[in-house]
């Protein structure tokens, strides 16, 4: 078997056999298939797609490329959650400790940012000392003791996906359903949780631009999970504007802390409570939203988050430190009306230019930079009122400020977008 023949076969729209997919992924994980050939193969998938059977084979081949975690020594129904990516998406930072505060074990492996989207690991690493690399033994022990751990994907777990995940980011092959589904579900299956909540984002700032595509991806991943005995639900969520107020690693951690102290925006607070209710149902607990909100705003979720940070080496004093960005620029409104649009993609790309995201996988991150919005879609704004603050380590040019303002659309009609669009079971 030769890699070039498999690239050509997929390029020409033919189906690969299970054996061919297994051979290719195993070769990539062991180094006999180089990055440049896997990049060509990913591009062939981008244009030709994969059948349901091929996607399933690709997923299980990636699972087999590394070890699988055995969480059976942890009591209870272990839960996990994954987002397909978005702008300002700090949901995991809040949702994981919130669910854990009900005694449900949350054993989560997260990823880094892809393109204009932020990564949970990048946000956690903005906390001084936080260790994302943990052994399987330490990971399990932590969940046994405090009921919660969020770590990075280890080199020996789904090794092929870890390599391909970084490669896709820099070869414009991120937003294709077979590669997203196999990447997400191979990690979730190998990580060992009994139940999985999938947050499938759709809209301007997501990789899925239409509800139809988001439904196809959701059903593909739910079917993959259930085929291997994992109770799986997908929630399709709106990513037409950034989640919450903040974009940028340190700034998003600070917003997460605000929400867990009852000081967050009502829309994102309610959204996270709804997701928590679904995760708790997956774990066999029926909780009403009033009870869930109480856990979120009265300090129970925050206490669990602080326990996790401390357990994984994080500095609690640094956790609450404000951004140390050199410049904070106020953005004032030129008009009166209602915020009509805040295109997530444009602001995600803007934050990248500030250093909050990566253009290529070797780019260093500036944890302190980003954007904090005072107002979101549907909010009333007066001329001269502050819309947002931009945190940067270089003084912003007039042109850059003008560009930012152009992406803030102000209209005459008050609109309030839904957060959860559809649930796929």
Descriptive labels:
425 residues, alpha/beta, Transferase, Pyrimidine Nucleoside Phosphorylase, Chain A, domain 3, Pyrimidine Nucleoside Phosphorylase, Chain A, domain 2, Aldehyde Oxidoreductase, domain 3, 3 domains, four-stranded mixed beta sheet, 17 helices
- For this structure, what is the CATH class of the largest domain? Alpha Beta
Mean pLDDT: 93
Q: What's the architecture of the largest domain, going by CATH?
A: 3-Layer(aba) Sandwich
Q: Give the strand tally.
A: 13
Number of helices: 17
Q: Taking strands numbered 1, 2, ... along the chain, how are they ordered across the largest sheet?
A: 1-4-5-13
Strand content: 15-25%
How does this structure look, described?
Helix 2 runs parallel beside helix 4 and helix 2 crosses helix 8. The two termini are 39 Å apart. The protein folds into 3 domains: 47 residues, Transferase, Pyrimidine Nucleoside Phosphorylase, Chain C (Transferase, Pyrimidine Nucleoside Phosphorylase, Chain A, domain 3, Up-down Bundle), CATH 1.20.970.10; 241 residues, Nucleoside phosphorylase/phosphoribosyltransferase catalytic domain (Pyrimidine Nucleoside Phosphorylase, Chain A, domain 2), CATH 3.40.1030; 85 residues, Pyrimidine nucleoside phosphorylase-like, C-terminal domain (Aldehyde Oxidoreductase, domain 3), CATH 3.90.1170. The strands form 4 sheets. The chain has a 4-stranded mixed beta sheet with strand order 1-4-5-13, with helices on both faces. A 4-stranded antiparallel beta sheet has the order 6-9-11-7, with helices on both faces. The chain has a 3-stranded antiparallel beta sheet with strand order 10-8-12, with no helix packed on it. Helices cover 45% and strands 15% of the residues. With 425 residues, the chain is an alpha/beta fold. Strand 4, helix 10 and strand 5 form a beta-alpha-beta unit.
